[in-house]
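Project standup — Tuesday

K.O.: blocked on the structure for the chain from last sprint. Re-posting the sequence here as requested.
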Amino acid sequence: MLLPHQPERDPTELNVKPDSTVVNLGRHLLAEFYDCNSNILNNVQIIEDVMTEAAIACGATVVEKRFHHFSPFGVSGVVIISESHLAIHTWPEYGYAAVDLFTCGNSCDPKVAYDYLQEKLHAGSAFYSELKRGLMNLGTQKMIESPFHLEAQMATSTAGAAVIGSQKGEEI
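H.V.: unblocked you, prediction finished:
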């Protein structure tokens, strides 16, 4: 089952009838992790293991993975999943990691992968923006050509979570 939502723009502008249902084909979390353990961020094997475990924890099916350690430091990698991908690039010298969690369908939840990574990277704080990708009019079964739909922006820290900016399509 796909996740329904209401478009922010005027339905006539999107070529959608006001009474139709709009669904998204994918969820895309763009995540920022700060104050992470630099030793973890610079270890290609640990990063590969943690990203693979995050994919499995969120319910995804791992297809392939590829990771690379840069000299003198930093790791980039991707876990290809049947549902799309999880990607990371680390800056150990800053305790920072940029992560991309893109899933399609409803068999996995990228938010679970985000929470898992925050814990395993020992992030002091983290942020994500969630985009709804591939908007489709269920009534016509046609894709809606429009910009990304921003579903939520969230900040989390070791003290808990707080919404920043917007959630569920509210204005930023």
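K.O.: great, moving the ticket to review. The helical segments are 38-41, 44-57, 110-120. Residues 1-16 have pLDDT under 50 and may be disordered.
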